[in-house]
Amino acid sequence: LPLFALLILATADLHVASFSGTQGPASCTRQCVGTSKATRDNWTGDYAHISVLVDISDCGFVSKPLVTCSIEARGAGIFGVSWVLGGSAPVDITENKFDVHLIGYTKFPSIGEAKANDWAINWSAVGYTC
């Protein structure tokens, strides 16, 4: 990359306009992103729902971050996961992890289905590292 492009990347602006916890200094703000796949990570479930505990400890947050997430199904066909609820609702958020619980409104999701259709929870977290 040209030096000019590197300078632009190094000076990217991240501003937290609203935060439910205590805001830290701007210099400590971090955005961290990732994915948790049913074929790779430890998803659990029973007859009515499936869950995944998403580890965000590598992000280095010192307090509860702001987390958004979505569910992705690469092999689920035209309707994807439109019948699944909860993919955008992280719960029990801490500086190190959060949970996502998936339920269905026309049928119950299963771990086997999640693995067969390559389901993933894509997430983004913004928080403070000091």
Features:
about 130 residues, mainly beta, three-stranded antiparallel beta sheet, 2 helices, elongated, disordered N terminus
Describe this structure in words.
This protein has 130 residues and is mainly β. The protein is built from two helices and seven strands; from the N terminus they run αββββββαβ. A four-stranded antiparallel beta sheet has the order 2-3-6-5, with no helix packed on it. β2 and β3 form a beta hairpin. It is elongated, with a radius of gyration of 17 Å. The model is unreliable at 1-11 (pLDDT under 50).
N→C terminal distance: 31 Å
Shape assignment: elongated
Give the spatial strand order of the biggest sheet: 2-3-6-5
Low-confidence stretches: 1-11
Main sheet overview: 4 strands, antiparallel
Structural class: mainly beta
Mean pLDDT: 80
Order of helices and strands: HEEEEEEHE
